[in-house]
Amino acid sequence: MFDLYTMKENKEKIAWLTSYDFPTAQFAQAACMDMILVGDSLGMCVYGYKGTVPVTMDQCIVHCEAVRRGAPDVVVVGDMPFLSYQASDEQAVMEAGRFLKEADVDAIKLEGGVRITSRISAITDAGINVIGHIGLTPQSSGQLGGHKAQGRTAEAAKLVVEDALAVQEAGAKMLLVEAVPPEVTRYIWETLDIPVMSIGAGPYCDGQLLIVSDLIGQFQAFTPKFVKKYCNVAEVITNAMKEYVSEVKNGSFPDDQKYCYPMVAGEEKKFIELMK
Ligand code: KIV
To answer: Which residues have CB under 6 Å of ligand 1?
Structure first.
C-alpha cells in the first residue's frame, strides 16, 4: 500500500482495475496492475443485479478471497457494500475487519464524504487502511438522481471539494473521485496530500480505476461515457460458443481421434471378444 505513496511522490501513475475472481486477478497481476478493487459492482457484473444495493458482505468476502489467491502481489482493496457501514462506527469497524481477517486485503473502500467521516476515523483507528470514494457514489444513486456526474456547477463542485477534504481529514489513505469534471478533480488533486484516483473524473490525478467488465467488453447492460473498451470478450466468447453449438449439432466435434482417449493398443479386439 505504501508503495503507492512513493509512486505519487515520483509522479508515476497508478493503474487500478476491479476484479472479482481468481483468473481475472491472475491476468491483472500478469499485466502489472498496481491495485485491484473487488468492487460491489460485482452485483451487476457477476450476479446480474440492477445495482449494487443487494450485494452482501459475505459475497464480497468470497470474491476478495478468490482475487487475493489470484493476485498475491497486488494491492487488493475490499469494497464495503451497502448497509455494512451505514448503521454505526462499531458496525463499520467490525465489517471492515472481516475483509482483513477473512480475505487478507490491503485496504477497504467506502462511499461518502462529510457524512461518513466518523466511520473513516473509526476504521482507521482500528489500524485498517481506508480509501474514500466521493462524487458519484452508486450506493446512494437514488438520492443523487441516478448514475449522474456530480460537481458540474460551481456550488455542486464546492460540495465535492468539501467531501474530499473531510475524507482526508478523517484519516483516509487515498481518495477515489467518480464522475466529476476534470477541473474539479484537478483542484482536489492539487489541494490534497493523499493520492487521488479517478474513475470518470479526468486525467489530473495520481491514477485511474476502471471496471474490468467494461474494459474487456463483457458487461452488456450499459456503458458509461468514461469507459474505454480495450477488447470485446462478449463477442469473442459468444462467437466461440456459437461455433461449439454448431459443431456439436453437425457432429464435427469431437471426432473419435482428436479430443478422445484411445484404448490401449490391442485392447479393442479383446474388448469386443469379452463382450460377446
Ligand atoms: O464497486 C465498484 O466497482 C466501484 C467503482 C464504481 C468505483 O465502487
So the answer is: 18, 37, 39-41, 79, 138, 176, 178, 199, 209, 211
Q: What is the pLDDT of residues 104-121, one digit of tens each?
A: 999 999 999 999 999 999
Instruction: Please give the backbone phi and psi of residue 201, each rounded to the nearest 5 degrees, phi first.
Output: -125, 25
Length in residues, the chain: 276
Q: Whose CA is nearest to atom 5 of ligand 1?
A: 39
* Cβ pair 99, 60 in contact under 8 A: yes
Q: Is the distance from CB of 5 to CB of 193 less than 8 angstroms?
A: no
Full-model pTM: 0.95
In the set 102, 111, 178, 190, the catalytic residue is: 178
Q: How far is the CA of 9 from the centre of ligand 1 (A)?
A: 25
Q: Which atom of ligand 1 is nearest to the CA of 111?
A: 8
Is 273 in the active site? no
Strands 174-178 and 207-210: unpaired
Tell me, in angstroms, the distance from the centre of ligand 1 to residue 200's CA: 11
> C-alpha grid cell for residue 83?
448497509
Q: pLDDT tens-digit profile of 163-200?
A: 999 999 999 999 999 999 999 999 999 999 999 999 99
- In sequence order, the 6+-apart residues with CB closer than 8 A to the CB of 139 are 40, 52, 53, 81, 82, 111
Distance from C-alpha of 273 to C-alpha of 99, rounded to nearest angstrom: 62
